[in-house]
Amino acid sequence: MAGRRQQVPMMQPQVIVLKEGTDTSQGVPQLLSNISACLAICDTIRTTLGPRGMDKLIVDSQQRVTISNDGATIMKLLEVVQPAARTLVDIARAQDAEVGDGTTSVVLLAGELLKEVKDYVEEGVSSQVIIKGFRKAADLAINRIKELAVSVDRSDKAKFRDLLEKCAATSMNSKLIGSQKEFFTKMVVDAVMRLDQDELDEDMIGIKKIPGGAMQDSLLVDGVAFKKSFSYAGFEQQPKSLDSPKIVCLNVELELRAEKDNAEVRVDKVSEYQAIVDAEWKIIFDKLDSIIATGANVVLSRLPIGDLATQYFADRNIFCAGRVSKDDLDRVCEATGCRTQSTTAGLAAKHLGTCERFEERQIGGQRFNLFKGCPEAKTCTIVLRGGAEQFIDEVERSLHDSIMIVRRAVKNQNVVAGGGAIEMELSRYLRETARQIEGKQQLIISAFAKALEVIPRQLCENAGFDTTDFITQLRARHAKDPERFKWYGVDIEEEVVSDLFAKFVWEPALVKSNAISSAVEAACLILSVDETVTSQQSQDPMAGGQPAMPGRGGRGMPMMGR
Q1: 506-508 and 496-499 beta bridge pairing
Q2: What is the pLDDT of residues 311-370, one digit of tens each?
């Protein structure tokens, strides 16, 4: 044995799978970390829910100040960097784009679903079991909403308009304009009903903001209104009001342009130089004459209309405005029946539009061009007044939510009661259904049912009510007689539990269905992630491809013999 050579353990080389400096986190701790990040986001916007919700003041990196209680706006401005928590930002934006309201509710519901199953994750329950239970519970809840939803017959115009006003008022309850909801409700419904009822394009509702005055000074223009654009000398000589004007919209520049830098023209005679100058003038005069030949007396263009053209039109009693924004020009075309022309060649009377009256009016400290009584009116403009700029911005966001809600109510006439009533009824229904299911799915569906109570609970907390007392009353009422008490929720105004459907606190059923499906998809997505791989370069932009310090990262096989 003495002669046998001593065995030396072989060194196992380290196998580098990922780039050095890459950080990896996996397993249950990583999943719990993602859930905690989402709960932190929910805690940020939790207090904004409901009529007694608080506002958030957010200062961004450019020192712009935003005051809002709109869930989608807050989530967008928070600049969330945690990868899993960004999912909540995405569902808030999706809810805002698809429905317009319920953005805070969808984030709270997703966070509460994760909170309820956090203990199960810690105890070792598979994420796939939880995901399966969530999806089954979501299907049950959405089907139950369809059963409970009340449909209003659209043929009865008075009842249908009443439905739209109730839905708009409910969405305004939690907004800054809640105190003036009677005034703005009529304005929002009138605006939506003026749109093409087949398309319901919200872009056709223009919203213009003018600081100063009171909220009640806001007005709805049946047609198009936009702020007076930059104008040259001679503008004041143009007409400021016209009856039955002929309107032409152009995408043509009507001014003499200076030559580009280093442009060179070689001439042998002075007369040749004069011919070049005369040609430039002839081109623009030909354009102006072709416009005048059509009989138009209101000329709008996306591109500049220079001082020569402005004075030329003023001498012929024609109004003109250049640098009109694309959105405003498109709405003028929709309202008056004209089409934007990219050239003046071949311009004829058939390309013109008209309206009953055009006028330029002073509103606040600004002058506005108004087109009223448009024959093709599938558009309108809301002119908002108010004090601080941040105040008007928040009013605009509130009206946008209400407009989206009314649009959805026009397309889907099914409504349910708000104020946490539908959530409590769904919670009771899922609890009863869960008792008939065996296995772990019973626990998951029961957790889903409990998570739905976050909406009425948070409404009570934000209003300063006794949360335990209100939730206990709601559970007892819904369990005692589900058919009679199915619409009972939190009445913020009278501080009691009452029938909110009878008090016209209505919401489109689509808002609740979309919120539940989006929240469940977000929760399932977060639960299905068990590993996060973060490259160093994405964390440190200044790294610029510099090699990582040895021994700092990269997942690999550990070396033997250490």
Answers
A1: unpaired
A2: 889 888 999 988 888 888 888 888 888 888 888 888 888 888 888 889 988 887 788 888
Q: Which of 24, 17, 29, 30 is nearest to 558 (CA)?
A: 17
Per-position b or e across 253-283, b if 16+ CB within 10 A of its CB: bbeeeeeeeeeeeeeeeeeeeeeeeeeeeee
pLDDT digits (tens, 9 = 90+) for 33-43: 889 999 998 99
Cα–Cα distance, 475 to 167 (Å, whole number): 26
Confidence of residue 551 (pLDDT cuts 50, 70, 90): very low
Quick: pLDDT tens for 98-143: 887 888 899 999 999 999 999 999 888 899 999 999 999 999 999 9
Are 194 and 375 spatial neighbours (Cβ–Cβ below 8 Å)? Answer: no
Extract the tokens encoding 210: 């003018």
- Residue 486: CA count within 13 A, CB half-sphere: 12
Q: Supply the residues annotated as catalytic.
A: 70, 103-104, 401
Cα separation, 475 vs 471, in Å, equals 6
Q: Residue type at 164?
A: L
Record the pTM. Answer: 0.74
Question: 370 with 360: CB under 8 angstroms?
Answer: yes
Q: How far apart are CA 408 and CA 411, in angstroms?
A: 5
Residue 366 host element (H or E):
strand 366-372
Distance CA(177)–CA(183), nearest Å, equals 9
Residues in Cβ contact with 560 at an 8 Å cutoff, skipping those fewer than 6 apart: 9, 10, 11, 12
Q: pLDDT value at position 449?
A: 94
Cβ neighbours of residue 244 closer than 8 Å, sequence gap 6 or more: 354, 355, 356, 357
Q: What backbone torsions phi and psi does residue 300 show, to the nearest 5 degrees? A: -120, 140
